[in-house]
Amino acid sequence: MRRMAVFCFPALAGILAVPIAVANHDIDQRPGPPPHSCRMGMDMQQGEHRMSGMQMGGMRMAGMPILGEFRALPAEIDSESNPITPAKVELGRLLYFERRLSASGQLSCNSCHDLASYGVDHQPTSLGHKNQRGTRNSPTVYNAAGHFAQFWDGRAATIEDQAKGPILNPVEMAMPSEKAAVAAIRAVPEYVARFEAAFPGETDPVTFDNIANAIGAFERKLVTPSRWDRFLEGDGNALTAEERAGFQWFMHSGCASCHSGTFVGGNSYQRLGEAVPYPERSDLGRFQVTRQASDRMVFKVPSLRNVEMTAPYFHNGKVATLEEAVTRMARYQLGVELLPDEKRVIVAWLKTLTGELPAEYISEPKALPGD
Ligand code: HEC
Ligand code: HEC
Questions:
Q1: Which of these three, 199, 223, 247, is where a domain ends?
Q2: Is 174 in the pocket of ligand 1 (CB under 6 A)?
Q3: Number of domains observed in the structure of the chain
Q4: Ligand 2 atom having least distance to the Cα of 316
Q5: Predicted TM-score (pTM) above 0.85
Q6: From the CA of 114, how far away is ligand 1's center (Å)?
Q7: In this structure, are 124 and 190 located in the same domain?
Q8: Index of the ligand 1 atom closest to the CA of residue 152
Q9: Which of 195, 223, 251 is the endpoint of a domain?
Q10: DSSP for 260-290, written as a single string
Q11: Residue 25 lies in a domain
């Protein structure tokens, strides 16, 4: 059994050769996961240390969409419909911190997605308008622009669509209407000039759509490359032996059937409780959007980038630690109880997804227009 992981990942041997020995020594104290997870094909060229065309057919998730590849983060997340320009980004940064976009004048996007704290507020559920709490945990805004849909239930398609939600949400920023939000911004002459610069050629650029476009353009550059990206780009030493073993165990356990791709998630909907029914069922997730019985307890698979820094976890914020999140994932998604050493190496690998925050890019403006 000890060597099973090696046989499961022959193509990984080049890059993981030494670590595998360490890993197996550390983690293989019981029969490995069932052989189906060995059917993953992995095409990693030795020396180049780059994975491509990872095939995960034949895994336990047979019949479910099987997802892409692990890839390094791009420098920014482009959009054809909302191209990133410096003027838009500057404006978007101001609006991100703008409390005028809330009914109380006290909340901005940054209140719940603190850019200096990895884009979260560390609350199980956030404090919004008049100290009301919603029912869901606020996910990070870092790298979110690259997800295939926004929100835990995917109810907004793009980061731009998403930005309109919280401004009008009665338990978040609680503006009474789009018109009211636009009026609050239009009242400040510097904003009008900045909208004209950011959206040249438009006769009336101060619109609710353009507020969202500017914030979206700003968010499209909130990317956080980490040691994992350096590893994917060919620096085999960017990860320690333990961390590489952790990735191997992550693959071996079947986590990557849902958490894969550039964002290690953020690219599919999956049922919470896929293997064993999840005990908390008050939030039915995507069912609330589609009303399809098959969408009960289905959520967007969250990205695991920066997951070390974004506790608490899960859609309802009820899971306090990363270790507990991994335990529950193995139990409810895969029907497996992880041993302490297996959990330890998986968590060690997850921490390699912690990127550097772009300090200058995210620094809070000293003054906002009109202040
Ligand atoms: C009162 C707290 C609060 C405020 C203010 C707030 N958000 Fe959120 N945000 C949340 C919560 C909670 C969710 C998850 C809601 C859900 O999934 O139903 C969320 C979800 C998101 C997401 C989706 C990320 C993902 O992984 O799906 C993005 C992006 C985002 N918010 C950006 C913003 C922007 C931009 C603003 C300002 C216009 C903003 N938020 C204001 C609490 C807040
Ligand atoms: C069948 C799909 C599936 C599998 C397999 C799976 N996950 Fe998840 N994962 C999800 C979903 C869906 C969520 C969101 C849960 C929620 O919203 O409450 C999630 C959430 C998480 C979170 C919490 C992220 C956050 O920001 O709250 C972590 C950490 C995580 N998974 C790690 C893992 C690990 C490690 C494994 C393998 C042991 C794994 N997952 C296997 C679908 C999956």
A1: 223
A2: no
A3: 2
A4: 18
A5: yes
A6: 11
A7: yes
A8: 17
A9: 223
A10: -TTTTSSS-EEETTSSS--S--S--BTHHHH
A11: yes
